[in-house]
Structures are given as structure tokens and as C-alpha cells.
Amino acid sequence: MNHTKPFRLAVVLAILFVAACGGQDPADPAAASGHPLLGERPEAGPDAGETFGGVIRRVAAGDAPATGLTVDYPLDESIFPPDFVAPTFLWHDAADGVDTWLVTIAFATGEPLHVLVPGSPRREPVYDPMAFGETNEPYLGSEYQRSARTWTPTAPLWEQIRTRSVEATATVSFTGFAAAKPARPVTRGEVRITTSRDPVGAPIFYRDVPLMPGAGREGKIQPLDPAATDLIAWRLRDLSKPESRVVLRSMPACGNCHSFSRDGKTLGMDVDGPHGDKGMYALTDIEPDLVIGTDDVLTWNSFSGKPEGHTTIGFLSRVSPDGRTVVSTVNEALYVQNFLDYRFLQVFYPTRGILAFYSRDDGEIRPLPGADDPAYVHCAAVWTPDGRDLVFCRATACDPEPPDGKMPEYSNDPNELPMKYDLYRIPFDGGKGGTPEPIEGASANGMSNSFPKVSPDGKWLVWVKCRNGQLMRPDGRLWIVPLEGGEARQMRCNMETMNSWHSFSPNGRWMVFTSKTHTPYTQAFLTHIDEDGNDSPAILIPNSTADNRAVNLPEFLNAPAESLQTISVPAVNHHAHFVAAERLMLESKFEEAIAYLERTFETDPLFVRAHHSLGVCLAQIGKHEEALAHFVFAREHMRDNPLALYNVGVTSLNLGRSRDAIDAFRLLKKEHADYPQIDERIRAADEQMFRLEATIERCRQDVRKNPADGKLRGTFSDLLANAGRRRESLEHLEKAVKLAPDDVALLRRLAWVLATNRDPALRNGPLAVAVAGRALAAEKGRPVYLLEVMAAALAAAGRYEDAVRTAEESLTQAKKKSGLYASLVQWRLEHYREGKPWRQPPVR
């Protein structure tokens, strides 16, 4: 009697039953006892009358091939937390025709569990359609990856496996069967796993980013296309849950470098704003619905030891264990090269910088003695758990510009600027610092050592070792050494490509890290570390994000996942409006862009990049006078951006202010000798000056013929100012006012020149106050443009309290009229509040 067909049918029914049960394990005795394939009914086999239960017993007894099947994941001897979702097993079977697998989970004690599975193909990738652009693509995996068979235990079965494998090995074997000979085992492979008694015990906070490098309006490659900034999300992952949840999205700022205090009560996080300042940093107490406002934000650029004209980003800032202090790298110089290759899209590391710390107790930023030597670059500092010491990277400082001028074309290109860091330890001692000491095993090893992290028990130091530089290096490997120094060893959890961004769980028994081994879209992994510093093979944290997005900088939060539900950042809402304006500018919709920029200034009137963009928009619609004020603002705050200075020159040229145009272009040539078209611009400005001088001489003749014409003298004064002849210009402006004493426009101009003249010999604060008073008395009401002049005059006279009150009155009126103009009023008001007079900004 031939029983083959009924057995084949039973296998098919079992497969269908698995699908119909929504992933239940019908062959699991605890879940589906009495199923025909596990019952005692006769089924097909080599001998008539053999039961499928008999087949299982034969397999368990070793009557099966020992090879032919490779379990790819989990890796052998993987350790899982007790609070972790079921993994997806992956395997490859070398035999043809194998279509069904018996999974046997054998434990140290008790009966094994058996599951009959169809070996489903690898699931189709789940993509975020918004996270695709011209510079990235779907990653489908290698042919080997695509051909894997998969099985994910159901939650009840995984619970049994976890419970019965606590600190005891569970051997998971896969035995392959073919329909042609359904009762004869064909292949076999196995993997050993264990469940730790140590829970993870804390959620993971991370940035979820699209990998979409792009070029901005100026053609400069950026690691994330500006149009994609609002696609960044920040997630919190409870590892006992199947998926993460978004706590913050669409914050149009970096926000990458984040950390928590040891007690999980304080969050520190980079934010690009207010003011578009990349040195801005939020430090706030954690609440379930966290709101980060401007009062929660500080700027590393307020460091008093910052060189004049230098801007800082506050590199890899870190909150102290008690949440009262933040350490960061300031005064940094950065070696940066971005690529359009989304797989490794950036080379980024500091070549100069010192350590500084911010104290919440007094709001001051100070350098850390012992880590403030400009001969070295000091960076990536982290605290020891007791807050007494810091561990940081140090290397000999150098300029970020390579001597030969060659820049890398890809990550780990030999043309990268050589930079090898060593790890040092230094006392913090309440900010007094001390003598830094190299850590034996993590320094002077011929490699670059970076991104240190100290275990919560203070015993171990884990860091990334690579050939050159730091951060997201293709050859980066995790190493461990006693914190006191000693023999270092490469960690077992390392994977083939890039190992970085690691973080210890609060109990110190688990470490999360990221890798690009399986996909260029960075994934998060977990490894167990015992008290002796031994780590286990990496296990994947599944469903962290879409398959075309990357996990970035995962950090454990020592608090229940419910303690942080949402984060909103009104402190940087201005940036969202700015991004919208930039998009409209790309479409030459300048009027619409201006409307968005006005909304930007409502939140942040001193947002520098927005001022520059506004200048561009105003110039494009012919409002050059207004545009110039915003370009000057941008130049004063973006000294490292030649475009702002160039636009000051171009707009001055358009307004006929030849001397200012010449000064701007010549300074630009001095700072950037190869700036495009700079020589042509200088010639154009010189030619305009030649024509202006001729116009001045003709106007001088007219003034001589009509000496009592006040308006004519006012025009003549303007021409002289355009030529940079300020003393003569002021003389004729004073004469014009005498001839037309009730002309408010002339009074206003005279008061402004007396209050803000670049030449100190020509300034006269008290006289400026008197002239501005006459203008206010002659005009109905108190118009904002006259209040602005009076505020500048009062400041020039040293009456700062009166200047502030007047400027505040002006600001109130300006906001009712235009947020764009109000932003410039705010700029001047800040000067008066700081006890500084306003000067017409020189082009410098």
C-alpha cells in the first residue's frame, strides 16, 4: 500500500494550516497537540505503518544527515535578552527539492519542541517611498541573501524557548525533507542559542534618517539633501515590543548628537537653532510630552574663549551622569568631505578643538584645563559613571586643508587627511581638570581610536578602532579594554562592515551598536557583555525603521518607555518655514518665499541663513535697499561664507554705492582669490566709481548755481556718501537741513549719520538725539522709522536704557507692519541691550 500521497498531502495541509493560523505553530505540541502530523496515525514513511511521530524520534536519535544546511542567523552561541521579540531564523539548504523543514528545539532538560515549517522566502523589503531620491536606490540584497529561507517563532513558542533556555543552551536544528521522499531526512544544520537572565531593561532612543545625499543651490554636496531634512525622525524602541514608535519628526535640524543623564531624567541634544546657529544645544528635563523651547537652548558659540570670527558646532556633546554639566569640543576645525554615494556618504572628523563644559548651575561655558592645549585636538569626550573623570580622543592638531590639496573621492580613500586618535583619561574635578593620561591598549597602537564608551560599572572601555579618522568608518571595529588600561581585544560581536555608534544599557550587560554589513542602510544590533567583558555574537534589532532608512546614534534611556511619549521643538520651528522658502526659491517663486521667511522671523528674528535668503529674494524683485540690510546682517554673522560678502558687493553696486561695492569685492578677493567673476566685478565697480565722480562734479556745479536748494544739497550729499567721501557728505547734509529745517527726510538722514557714522570723528550722539527729536516732533505719531533713528541716537549718546525702551517701542510697531523689518529692528535692539552703540556695519 502506497502511503506517500497522504503524507505529501499532510505536509501541504500543514503548510496551509501555518498560513491560515496567522503564524501559529500547529506542530508545536503545546500549541496544537493532536494535529495529524504529530499524532499516532500511520503516515507515509520508508516502511508502511511508520508514524510521523516516529520520524521525529528517528531525527532526534540522530538518524539524519549531519550537514547540507547552513543556519545563517542567529549566529552560533548568540545570547538573547529575556525581554526581546522573537528573531527570524535564516538558513540555506544545499539540497535540491527540499521543501519542508522540521525545526527541533532541544533543551538541557525536558522534552524538545518540534515545529514543521515551509521555510518561507525572505520577506519583501518595506520601503519609505519618500526616502528615495536621485542618489539612492532600493537595496534588494545579494543573491545569497535573497535566497534565504526564514522562520519566525510565534510569541507563545518564543516564550517557551526563552523560558527554557535561560543560561542553558537551546539547540535549534533544521532538518530538511523533500516531497519526493517525504519521510527521509535529507539535510540538517543547527545553531545554539541562550537566553540571559539579564534584561535589557531600558528603551533605545535613536535618529532614523534617509540616506539621500544631494547638492544644494550652490552645487555643494550635502550628506542629506536639504529638501529631505523634514524626513528625519527620532524613535524610541522598547525591545520587548515588535516595533519602535516615533517621538519626534520633521524637526528641520541635525539633532544627531544626543545623550541622557545616567538617571534618565535629562536630555541633551543638538539643534540647529534658534538663529540657524549650528552650535545650538538643547538641555532639558525629560517629561512624557517634552517641549523644547528657546529657554532650553544654549549655544556653544557663547564660549568666551572662542577666537574672533570663529563659529563652533559643539562636537559630540555629552551630558554628565547627574545631568548638571555638558562637555563638548569647541573651537574645532573639521575635515569634511561629502559624497553622493549613499552607502558611505561622508568623511567627517575634527583636526582642531579643545574640551569645554557648560554648567547648568551658573550658565557658563569654560575650557577644561588639561584638555585645552591647542597643539592637540580633543574630542568625543564621555564621562565615567561617577562623573569624576572624562575619557576622550586626542591627536596632534593640524589644519583641515590637506597640504597637497587633494580631497578623497570615497570613504577610506588613501587621500584622506591622516588623523590617528588615541584615548586619554583626565580628571574633571569640578571643572579644574588635570593631567590627561593615555589609556594603555587604546593608544599608541598604530590605529585611530575613537568614540569611547565606559560601562556603567566603570570596569570596561569600548571604542572603535580603524585605520584613519573616526565616525562611520567602513573598517571600524569595536574593541574592549579595562578602563584602567591593559590588554585590549577585538569584540566578538563585530561584523564585516562598519561597527560604530555603540551604547551600554543602564545595567551594563547589553550594548547596542550599528553596522552596514547586511545593507548600506545602517541597522542596529545588540550584544551581551558579561562581568569579565566577554561579548556574544550580534543579534539584529528587527523592525527599527524602513528598509531604505538608517538607524543613527542609538542611546539607551534609563527610564520606562512611557516616560517619553512625544518631543516637540518650537525652538526650531523657524527652520521648517525656512526650508519651505528655500524650495520656493528653487522654483523662482520669490514673493511666496518671502512670505515663508516672514513666518521664520516671527519665531526667530535673528536666523542668519534666513536673512541671507531674504536678501536674495528682495534683490530678485528689485528691492535692493532692503536686500542690502539683510546681506550685511548675513555677512556680519557668516564670516566664513563668501557668498554673503559677494552679495553685499553686488547689491551695493546695484544701488550705485560704488565705494562700498569696491571695498566688498576687494575684500572678497583678498579672502577668496579664486572666487568666480571677482575680477570682473571689481572692474565694474571701478567703472561705476569713475562715472559717479563725473556725476558728482556735475551736481557740484548745480549746487553752486542753486546754493539755497536744500533738496539738491541732500542729493549731492548722497552722491558723496556713495563715493565714500563721508566728511564732505555730512557737511552738505547739515547745510541741507539748515536750508530745509522742516524736511523730515533730511532730519532723519542727518540724525542717522550723526549716530551711526563709521568715522568716529563724525559721530555726535547728543546732536543726533536733538535732530531725531526735531524729526519726531515734525511727524504725526511716532513712526517706526523715526523711533529707530532715535534709539540709535540715544545709544550713541550713551543713554542705553532710553535706547532700549525706544527700540522696544519701535519693535512693537514693526511687528505689526512687517516681520521682515522687525528682524532688523531686533538686531539693533540686541546691541543696545548689551550696552553697545549701533554702527553702520563696515564691510570687513
Concise account of the structure shown:
By secondary structure, the protein is α+β, with helices and mostly antiparallel strands. The protein contains 19 helices and 37 strands.
List keywords for this structure.
844 residues; alpha+beta; 4-stranded antiparallel sheet
Task: Explain how this protein is built.
It contains 19 helices and 37 strands. It is 30% helix and 24% strand. The model is unreliable at 1-50 (pLDDT under 50). By secondary structure, the protein is an alpha+beta fold. Helix 7 packs parallel to helix 19. The chain has a five-stranded mixed β-sheet. It has a four-stranded antiparallel β-sheet with strand order 1-3-7-6, with no helix packed on it. A four-stranded antiparallel β-sheet has the order 14-13-10-36, with no helix packed on it.
Shape: elongated
As residue ranges, the low-confidence spans are 1-50
Give the integer mean of the pLDDT values.
Answer: 88
What is the C-alpha radius of gyration, as a whole number of Å? 35 Å
Distance between the termini: 100 Å
